[in-house]
Amino acid sequence: MAQFIKLYNDNPNPKEIAKIVKVLQNGGLIIYPTDTIYGLGCDITNTKALEKIARIKEVKLEKANFSFICNDLSHLSDYVKQIDTPTFKILNRALPGPYTFILPGSTSLPKAFKKRKTVGIRVPDNAIAQAIVEALGNPIVSTSIHDEDEMIEYTTDPELIFEKWQNRVDIVIDGGYGDNQASTVIDLTTAMPEIIREGKGSLDIL
């Protein structure tokens, strides 16, 4: 059964963050808060954990549209081909924030993503998510968790999330009620930015 860990966004407890990081390094799965909806995540470098998430989502790992959660833009060069100044300016304006940006993948992507031409990059404006990634030292791969209720697309109550997911993940983090609106997804690999999904993030940054 998963651990249920309460954290406060204004001051995440470093001891609890260290515990979460250890679980990630050992191939564990976590459910954690972001600046939009709760996400299901694992260490980007752990192929077995990535395969577990792909099985849960019922997708093939090589075809999965997972996001890379970074704590700032310093990890970009590890996963993304060199980007031009206009693109960087958009990223700088928008992040951290409720956006996922599709960018051209580099040749140094982790093994599981080697064949990908593009990657989705996210820097959530959430201190808990940022503290986990910073302490881990590399991004976590993430996907959203959907609600079975067709009227509500995303579960926002961490206790209900725990009830539903406690036997499928290692840690559920209670960071307070989540949002029920996903991130805005923007493709920056095209000549002009292309809106793939309009979500919480305003389009004024373009």
UniProtKB/TrEMBL annotation:
One of its GO terms (molecular function) is double-stranded RNA binding. Pfam families: Sua5_yciO_yrdC. It comes from the Bacteria. PROSITE patterns: YRDC. Residues 14-201 form the YrdC-like domain. This is YrdC-like domain-containing protein. It comes from Tenacibaculum piscium. The lineage of its organism: Bacteria, Pseudomonadati, Bacteroidota, Flavobacteriia, Flavobacteriales.
